[in-house]
């Protein structure tokens, strides 16, 4: 009976000595050639922002209660992505002069952050490959597939958080899709939007002056097209410069055409802005018809296009009015 009591007491002691899971992460490190006297750990989505002091030797340490997820470390000059979760005890070392290349992690729960550091280096190689987008299609696809396969292989045998793994697999699939789109767009532009190629057309766009206008109606003159919207501040910033260029080339062999890609709900705002800003030239409204924009692979506005009197492309991505190179281009064409 006495032995049983001792065993029971021993069991209770074992239970009482079990450590409770930590509700914080310990993050420490050493930075050689530090850029500032602190590092900042942040995640805007979680509304998390922690400044950690870095001492004169480059060392830092702090404990933080966090939500499991991705965080950004800023050393005053460069960024790194971390994956933090409570219970982890992560140590980081780096040389700020070779930031990405020297980041290492050790400790408990460091594997996700180390995975991210390696991924960052591999992605730098891909985006730094200046020949990638000019490769023949089969070579391009082979190179991207090799990159993706190498990425996925790193999951094998790795001790990684399941949520992290799912996120990273989704991320690499998105990156592959993005690279393929950029490649396809570049090949399309080289083939279909090269100098001298016939321009894609827009048909029956509403003309603020009355009626409708199609691109074919403008043949016989150079056509400088401005794709814009009333909600686009960079577009509006170009308006004063566009008006100056229009005035300089008034009665010359060129037509200035501004095509609004505003949504239908902003139609009246477009009409009002033409009056308020005293917009000149040919003012057209696309009525949310994206055919012309898609044909030119427009991914952002403002976008400027220059066509010759026959309706052929001079420059599918022409200089902005604020760029002195636009007038230089006009002069080279004897407009």
Descriptive notes:
- The structure is a single chain.
- The chain has 335 residues and is α+β, with helices and mostly antiparallel strands.
- It has helices spanning 2-17, 99-102, 111-127, 137-153, 162-192, 233-237, 239-248, 267-276, 291-295, 325-332; strands spanning 25-32, 38-43, 48-53, 59-64, 69-74, 79-84, 89-95, 104-108, 205-207, 212-213, 222-228, 254-260, 282-285, 303-307, 313-315.
- α4 packs antiparallel against α5 (162-192).
- The chain is elongated and about 80 Å long.
Brief characterization of the structure:
The chain is an alpha+beta fold. It has helices at residues 2-17, 99-102, 111-127, 137-153, 162-192, 233-237, 239-248, 267-276, 291-295, 325-332; strands spanning 25-32, 38-43, 48-53, 59-64, 69-74, 79-84, 89-95, 104-108, 205-207, 212-213, 222-228, 254-260, 282-285, 303-307, 313-315. The chain is built from ten helices and 15 strands.
Annotate the secondary structure layout:
Layout: H1 2-17, E1 25-32, E2 38-43, E3 48-53, E4 59-64, E5 69-74, E6 79-84, E7 89-95, H2 99-102, E8 104-108, H3 111-127, H4 137-153, H5 162-192, E9 205-207, E10 212-213, E11 222-228, H6 233-237, H7 239-248, E12 254-260, H8 267-276, E13 282-285, H9 291-295, E14 303-307, E15 313-315, H10 325-332
Parallel strand pairs: 1-7, 11-12, 12-13
Antiparallel strand pairs: 1-4, 2-3, 2-5, 5-6, 7-8, 9-10, 9-13, 11-14, 14-15
β-sheet strand percentage = 15-25%
Uncertain ranges: 1-17
Helical element count? 10
Query: Class by helix and strand content?
Result: alpha+beta
For the biggest sheet, the summary is: 7 strands, mixed
Which strand order spans the largest sheet, edge to edge or round the barrel? 10-9-13-12-11-14-15
Considering DSSP H and I runs of 4 or more, what fraction of the residues is helical? 25-40%
Topology pattern, helix = H, strand = E: HEEEEEEEHEHHHEEEHHEHEHEEH
Quote the distance from N terminus to C terminus: 109 Å
**Rg from C-alpha positions?**
29 Å
Mean pLDDT: 93
Number of strands: 15
General form: elongated
């Amino acid at each position: 009976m006495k032995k049983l009591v001792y065993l029971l007491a021993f069991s209770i002691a074992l239970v009482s000595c079990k450590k409770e899971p930590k509700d914080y992460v310990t993050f420490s490190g050493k930075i050689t050639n530090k850029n500032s006297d602190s590092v900042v750990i942040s995640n805007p989505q979680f509304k998390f922002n922690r400044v950690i002091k870095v001492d004169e030797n480059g060392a830092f340490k702090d404990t933080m209660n966090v939500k499991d997820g991705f965080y950004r470390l800023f050393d005053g000059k460069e960024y790194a992505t971390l994956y933090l979760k409570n219970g982890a005890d992560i140590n980081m070392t780096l040389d700020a002069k070779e930031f990405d290349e020297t980041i290492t992690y050790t400790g408990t729960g460091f594997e996700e952050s180390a995975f991210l550091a390696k991924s960052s280096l591999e992605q730098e190689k891909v985006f730094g490959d200046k020949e990638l987008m000019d490769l023949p299609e089969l070579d391009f696809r082979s190179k991207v597939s090799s990159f993706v396969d190498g990425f996925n292989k790193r999951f094998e045998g790795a001790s990684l958080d399941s949520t992290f793994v799912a996120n990273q697999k989704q991320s690499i699939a998105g990156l592959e899709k993005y690279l393929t789109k950029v490649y396809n767009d570049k090949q399309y532009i080289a083939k279909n939007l090269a100098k001298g190629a016939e321009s894609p057309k827009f048909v029956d766009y509403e003309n603020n002056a009355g009626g409708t206008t199609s691109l074919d109606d403008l043949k016989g003159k150079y056509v400088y097209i401005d794709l814009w919207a009333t909600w686009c501040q960079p577009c509006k910033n170009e308006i004063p410069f566009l008006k100056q260029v229009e005035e300089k080339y008034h009665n010359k062999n060129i037509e200035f055409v501004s095509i609004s890609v505003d949504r239908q709900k902003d139609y009246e705002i477009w009409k009002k802005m033409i009056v308020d800003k005293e917009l000149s030239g040919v003012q057209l409204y696309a009525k949310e018809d994206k055919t012309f924009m898609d044909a030119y692979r427009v991914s952002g506005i403002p976008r400027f296009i220059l066509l010759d009197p026959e309706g052929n492309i001079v420059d599918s991505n022409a200089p902005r009015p604020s760029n002195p190179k636009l007038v230089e281009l006009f002069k080279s064409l004897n407009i």
